[in-house]
Amino acid sequence: QVQLVESGGGLVQAGGSLRLSCAASGRVFIINAMGWYRQAPGKQRALVAAISNIGNTNYANSVKGRFTISRDNAKNTVYLQMNSLKPEDTAVYYCNANLFEEKSRLASDYWGQGTQVTVSS
Question: What is the DSSP code string of 84-100?
């Protein structure tokens, strides 16, 4: 079994910062990419940022210049540094990984449990 465990969510004032972490554990063999998605009340789940196994990154336009995604490959961990937070960033943030399990030839997507980020004005 593969598990993604998230941490770092919380309540901050507008203009503040948070750093989210997500660690993959279990029968992980190769991680192709990891990323962060978010879902606000009444909204669809949407990509925030993603990073590939060779370090290519992709950001939603709404967070460019404010958020930074990074990885620690040795720890199978992805981070999301969120600066200059706005009330519009309030959402549940979900970690995602596309990876191969040990002894598998099929890559699959896995999801974390979600962590609440609330930005007050």
Answer: S--GGG-EEEEEEEEEE
